[in-house]
Write a structure and sequence with these properties.
- The protein is of the alpha/beta class.
- It has two domains: about 180 residues, FAD/NAD(P)-binding domain; about 160 residues, 3-Layer(bba) Sandwich (FAD/NAD(P)-binding domain), CATH 3.50.50.
- It is built from nine helices and 24 strands.
- Strands 5-2-1-9-20-19 form a six-stranded mixed sheet, covered by helices on one side.
- Helix 1 runs parallel beside helix 3.
- The two termini are about 30 Å apart.
């Protein structure tokens, strides 16, 4: 009996679960090690923040999937690998043996570079914890009276979507409050995307009354305030949506890492230092084809990861896979509209949200 162990319930692993469940491998036992039994679909989280989806609509029940597809579920957090013994070490002291291992553990919040953020700010990553944190936050703000100042740090796609979604939701929940949202970014908003997309985002933020501070790196977070330059900005709540970092325990695995500490994998999604270890999602970087840490790439890694795990278990050579360089990005604005951008073009409208909603719901239906 070979032991295939999947560590983490990320988007790529959810697809692997489906594939091995629908077409079981003879002589192989599949185990999923997951810290969070309810795993979020990142594409729908901004809609959840805005109140367009409820919790269950955008979270996958891993326990139900494991029961359906005869996969053993170990509820625990991986903290180390013993590669000599081929064991995954868990925080509670358990050791899970493996013959073939795949890691899809996401990314960790990167708060160390911003003094005070670990104490006074809410990180969006790990995204699995965000859902319940947001529901708790909303419950606390239902009775808020007077000004409510929200600061979102991070001007990428995630930061833009969060700022717009939070403003929309809080204005319907915190009815006694005057909600003000400020989006702070170290560089220009949506750096790396098309100028057309940036122009549309700036126009929407201005129209919605969201204050945008570009080229304004946050330097410190204290209780009730964020320091930018020499100016303190009042903040009743601070959310950090900057680029996440690699889980710290990966550094001790002895596996090759990229410059930021993420696992370095080849075109077959295998570790460059151990062919019995695969990795996908935010925790991994394809050395020959680096891409942004975005859910769209984790979703698309699912099929080639499942194929290559099956091939290796059957004694066959894995096949290389190349992710696409250009991709469609649809940013929800929290109010039932969205911006669709690909390459140099960008369009805005309700139809873009309908399109995104259709894509996301169709993906989720596979795992119900």
């Amino acid at each position: 009996m070979q032991e295939l162990v999947l560590v983490g319930g990320g988007h790529a692993h959810v697809h692997v679960l489906k594939r091995v469940g629908e077409a079981p491998l003879a002589g192989v036992r599949v185990t999923l090690v997951a810290r969070d039994v309810k795993t979020p679909y990142s594409g729908m989280i901004p809609g959840f923040i805005a109140g367009l989806y409820d919790f269950d609509a955008c979270h996958i029940d891993l326990a139900a999937l494991c029961r359906r597809w005869n996969v053993r579920l170990v509820h625990g957090e991986a903290v180390a690998l013993d590669r000599a013994r081929r064991q995954v070490q868990l925080a509670d002291g358990q050791a899970v043996p493996w013959d073939l291992l795949s890691l899809d553990v996401g990314a960790a919040p990167h708060l160390g570079a911003l003094p005070g953020a670990d104490r006074w700010a809410v990180p969006v990553k790990p995204i699995a914890e965000l859902g319940r944190r947001w529901l708790t936050f909303l419950e606390e703000k239902k009775t808020w009276l007077g000004p409510l100042d929200i600061v979102v740090i991070g001007g990428g796609a995630g930061g833009v979507e969060m700022a717009l979604a939070m403003q929309h939701r809080l204005r319907t929940v915190a009815r006694g409050a005057t909600v003000t949202v400020t989006l702070m970014t170290r560089d220009a908003v949506l750096t790396g995307q098309a100028p057309a997309a940036r122009r549309r985002v700036r126009a929407i933020l201005q129209r919605r009354g969201i204050r945008l501070l570009e080229h304004a790196p946050a330097q410190r977070v204290e209780r009730g305030a964020v320091l930018v330059g020499e100016t303190w900005h009042h903040a009743d709540a601070v959310f950090v949506v900057t680029e996440a970092s690699a889980p710290g325990w990966l550094a001790a695995t002895g596996l090759p890492l990229d410059a930021r500490g993420f696992l370095a994998v080849s075109d077959t999604l295998q570790s460059e230092g151990d062919g019995r270890v695969f990795a996908a999602g935010d925790c991994a970087t394809m050395t020959n084809h680096p891409r942004p840490k975005a859910g769209v790439f984790a979703v698309r890694q699912g099929p080639p990861l499942a194929d290559n795990l099956r091939r290796v278990l059957q004694g066959e050579a894995p096949r290389p896979w190349v992710p696409q360089a250009r991709y469609l990005s649809i940013l929800g604005t929290g109010d039932g509209h969205a911006i669709a951008t690909r390459g140099a073009w960008a369009f805005e409208g309700r139809w873009a949200w309908w399109w995104k909603d259709h894509i996301d719901r169709r993906w989720m239906r596979q795992y119900r």
